[in-house]
Structures are given as C-alpha cells and as structure tokens.
Amino acid sequence: MNKRIKFADFKIVKNDEQKYIYCVNDNKIFEIDDKTLALLDQEGKTYEEIENDLSSLFSKDELDDLIKSMHEFGIIENRGEKLKENSNKISRSISAITLLVAQDCNLRCSYCYADEGKYHNSGKMDLATAKKSVDFLIRKSESDELGVCFFGGEPLLNFTLVKEVVDYCHKKEKEIGKKFRFSMTSNGTLINKEIEEFIIENNIRLQISIDGDKKTHDSNRYYTGKIGSYEKVLEKTKSLREKGLLDARSTITTKELDLVHTYDFLNSIGFNRVALSPAFNLLNVKEYDIMADSFVDFYLNFEKRIKEKKYEEVKNNIMFMRQLGDIHNSRVRTTACGAGNNMYAIDINGDIYPCQRFVGNKEASLGNVFEDDYRQKDFLERTTVDNFGKCNDCWIKNLCVGGCVHTNFSLTGDINVPYEPHCEYKRKIVAEAIKIYLRLSDEEIDELFKDQNKLSKSS
C-alpha cells in the first residue's frame, strides 16, 4: 500500500450549508462531508500516511470503504484519463453545411463582425457552387439526415438561389434515400408572401435577428443613416410569428443588460425560441464582468420559474437547459461546438470554413468544394480541448471546452488561446449553473429531464 493517492482533477463547490465535489474530467458531482473533505487534502500521500494522519477521523474500515468508493466513482484515477479516452470519439463525418448565399446585407448593424455582411468579398453564390456544396455534404456525410442552413449577409437577397437549392436537395433525397432539413438566419426585413409560403411549405426553420424592444433593437440594427429596422421587422414577420414559426436571436450589448426583459419581450411578441448572444467584440475588460452578472441574474430568474413549476417555460429556454443538461448528464466533450467537426460554412466561391464566423479569413480555409484538398483532420486536432494549454488547469474545461474558437481567434489571434476576461465570464456563469442544479429537488430534475436518465446526487 505504498502507492501514493492521486485524485482526479476536482473543485469543491459549496452551496448553502452543503459541500460537493465536482469532478473536472467527467462532470460528475458528489455530495461530501467534512471527513471526505479532509481526505481530499491528502493528495500525494501513501495509504499508510493517510491512515496515520486521519486516525482521529476514520477507522481503518471506514477509510478503506471511502477510498474504494472514490475509486469506483473515478475520483481517484490518473489525471486526464477520461478526457484522453473520449478524445478518440470525435466525429469525422459532417452532417450540415451553412451556405453563404449572399455576402451582402441591406442593414448596417453596429456590431457586425462580417464587414456589413460582405466578409471582405461582396457577392452572391451561384447555382453551380451551391450544387457542388450540397454534393460535398452528401459525399462527406454518413448521416441519414442532412442539414442546410442559408446564411449571409442577408440570405433573402438571393432568394432565387435558396429556392433552387431546396429543389435540388429534394431531387437528391430521392436518389440517395436521405432527408434534408433546412434552416435560415435572416434579419426579417425582406419577407413577403411568396417567401413566407415557401418557408412553410419546405419546413424551413427560420431564426430572426432581433435584439429586443424598439429602443434596444434600433440602437444597433439599422439601415444606412442609422434608420432603425424594428418596425419593418415586426411588419414583415407578423404572420409567421402569429403561426409560431419563428425563433429569435438577440445580440446582447451593454445598451440593454436586463436579459429577462429582452427574453420575455421577444417571447411575448410571438417568437418561439429565443437565443441571447453577447457581442463579445464590443466589450472592454470591465464589461465582461458586468455581462456575466447579467447572465447570472438571468439564470437565477429561471431557477425561480422552476420553483414556481413553470417547467415548459424553462424547457423552452434552450441556452439554460443546455447548460443544466451538460451538468445533469455528465457529458464529456472534446470540442466546444460542431464547427469544423460535423458542420461547415461555404462561401460564395466554394471555400470551406469551420463556421460562418471564419468566412473571409483565408488562413482559416479548410479547402474548396471544387477541389479534393480537404483539411478537416488538421483543424480537428487543433481544436480538441487537450490542445488548449491554458485550459489544462481550468476547472470548467469540460463545460466550456476551450470556448468558441472564433471568439478566441478574434480576441487573441489564436484559436487555441482563450481570452482571460472571457474565461472569467464563463467561470462565473458555470459556477452559478452548478449551484442552481444542486438546489433542484429530485422532482424538479425529473420534470426538466423526463426523457433522460436521471443523475442522482450521490454521497
């Protein structure tokens, strides 16, 4: 028994009077007592040394049983073992593409990362490039269901191509025996009756970029001359909102930090699901902390709704549920999202990028649909979290997974180097999410995750 005890990476989480151990490598959470906490302070000691040092707290049998349980639950293990094991499970098969059908936009939003939607290369995709892109997806995918997202700029500036692509995909469905699903992100200002009917007929999931109430939206999303677009968006989306067929994506800036107000307002005017996304490119160091506080308040508001048994409202908040779900299911991930993994963006020239945010950065191109040079493997190897040196010692590395690689790229110039204020932002939000989860009763967990295996809080 001379082998020295080595614990898996962990963090102690205190919630009210209770203490928990959060296991970094596999997201498991266990309730602990003061005696267990004392054992966790014995890192690097032999069994005999621990038995001697803690003789006033444990009998030999009690210590044996506790160490055995820690082995069974993976609390005592080789560091990084589980993470390394899961890094081999990265998908090599893509299932979706984002088509930049129009690299241009009719709005001039204040926070646009895409050079007014042009991505430094204004133009529209032609049918030959679009077909080649769909063929690329079919050839590279092992999935039975394939996704095509129409994006821009403003994709409805090239609605003719959207129709042609959907038609081409439907023809391909009959040939290959697979199903296509369609989505689109739009500013909503160009929707007309023909477009609405087409969206409904082809079951296109449409997400509208809208930042909240009129004052908030018009302060950031406007036409040339800073003429606000809010009234036009509401006018053009009225029918689809009344049918419950629209989602909303709200870009959050420091101009409006009452996230509960923004979320509830967009729900109240008929948007089905609402995503809140901070404009990190506009924030200074101090504002990251302010933004984190806003999201903590937002999460706490939804905890209150759980206590009020408003479960359907809560489950409709995809962002909140995804955060709790990662904790609940002890998910082990190696990449932050599907960018460069199971999804790609393709620009008007057929150049392939990890996601739409990288379009225009030629050094990030992974190939072209008209060529055979396809560099997915190199990108994937770079973006697995074990290649983010800064993340190795971070306790939320398996819930953040290095963060958005484009956010890293835009803020530090390197996809593998997260920006420290952003790291602090994420740690603050994740810590609160874990505490919220720990405050949930078994009944509340069952209601929120009815279709998933229940994760009990073990002691």
Structural notes for this entry:
With 459 residues, the chain is of the alpha/beta class. The chain has 3 domains: 70 residues, no CATH class; 216 residues, TIM Barrel, CATH 3.20.20; 67 residues, no CATH class. It is 41% helix and 16% strand. It has 18 helices and 15 strands. Strands 4, 5, 6, 7, 8, 11, 12, 13, 14 and 15 form a 10-stranded mixed β-sheet that branches. A 3-stranded antiparallel β-sheet has the order 1-2-3. It has a two-stranded antiparallel sheet with strand order 9-10. Helix 5 runs parallel beside helix 6, helix 11 runs parallel beside helix 17 and helix 13 packs across helix 17. The radius of gyration is 25 Å and the shape is globular. The C terminus is likely disordered. Keywords: Iron, Iron-sulfur, Metal-binding, S-adenosyl-L-methionine. Its cofactor is [4Fe-4S] cluster. This is Radical SAM core domain-containing protein. GO terms for molecular function: iron-sulfur cluster binding; metal ion binding; oxidoreductase activity.
Secondary structure layout plus pairing:
Elements: E1 10-15, E2 18-23, E3 29-32, H1 34-40, H2 47-53, H3 60-72, H4 81-86, E4 96-103, E5 123-124, H5 127-140, E6 145-152, H6 159-176, E7 179-186, H7 193-201, E8 205-209, H8 214-220, E9 222-223, E10 227-228, H9 230-242, E11 246-252, H10 259-268, E12 274-278, H11 285-307, H12 311-315, H13 318-328, E13 343-346, E14 351-353, E15 367-368, H14 376-383, H15 397-400, H16 405-412, H17 420-439, H18 442-448
Parallel strand pairs: 4-6, 4-13, 6-7, 7-8, 8-11, 11-12
Antiparallel strand pairs: 1-2, 2-3, 4-5, 9-10, 13-14, 14-15
Helix pairs in contact: 5-6, 11-17, 13-17
